[in-house]
Design goal:
single chain, alpha+beta, Beta-Lactamase, 2 domains, about 50% helix, WH-like_DNA-bd_sf, CheY-like_superfamily, PAS domain-containing protein, PAS-like_dom_sf, RNA binding
Length: about 230
């Protein structure tokens, strides 16, 4: 194994160890079907709202958890879904115990076998409690082999921060989540994010839509771009 291969294999662990990202994210899936006007959510999303597994979500239930300061944002998000649009949102919810959760929601259209849009599906990412600052201790001197990777990741983090209104550590943790779930290297995901930037220069709405798509389809895009792995 070459030194380059070693860096590639250990890149995520090295960057995470230096940055110090803290506890894993809580992530859950959801769907909304237009025909039946029904919501579905995973047990993780139910737990974010304070409910046991198997609880059936409704529009009214979701709205009941809106944070007073994010009322308009949450209502706009749900209206967008019910009107047939994909969306992304960074807002707060209040669970059944009165605890506030800061969540990032990303989605894209759900298609049937013929390519027709039949709903919206995506993820809730609980980013509650992440710090505003993180460590960069001696990266240039102790990990010179991943300096380039760090620069790419920093650019991707900046794009996510702009698109979703989250801080630097939250953006890194979102990239890490997709890397762990899809088994695609963190740097590869960052490169896919950066590749979208020239296409949507100056348009934050299009940027959010493009990054939603990248995050939700990165596993498929990676296989198409690099079929030999």
């Amino acid at each position: 194994m070459t030194h380059r291969d070693e860096v590639s294999h250990d890149e995520l662990a090295l960057v995470e160890r230096v940055v110090g990202v803290g506890d894993p994210l809580t992530v859950g899936r959801f769907r909304y079907r237009f025909g039946s006007r029904q919501w579905e959510w995973s047990d993780e999303v139910a737990a974010m709202h304070g409910y046991p597994p198997g609880t059936q979500p409704t529009t009214e239930l979701l709205l009941s958890h809106k944070h007073p300061r994010d009322r308009d944002r949450l209502e706009a998000m749900i209206t967008s879904v019910e009107d047939g649009g994909a969306f992304s949102s960074h807002h707060r919810i209040v669970d059944t115990h009165g605890q506030v959760h800061e969540v990032l929601v990303v989605s894209e259209p759900m298609l049937d076998a013929d390519g027709a849009v039949i709903g919206t599906e995506g993820y809730y990412v609980d980013v509650t409690g992440t710090a505003d600052e993180f460590r960069r201790e001696a990266l240039d001197s102790t990990l010179p082999a991943v300096v380039d990777a760090r620069m790419v990741i920093e650019q991707a983090k900046g794009a996510l921060m702009l698109a979703y209104g989250i801080n630097a550590e939250q953006a890194f943790r979102v990239l890490r989540w997709r890397s762990q779930e899809t088994n695609v290297k963190l740097r590869t995901i960052a490169e896919l994010v950066i590749a979208e930037l020239p296409k949507v220069a100056g348009d934050e709405v299009k940027l959010r839509a493009r990054l939603d798509h990248v995050l939700l389809t990165v596993h498929r895009r990676h296989v198409e771009d690099d079929p030999v792995g």
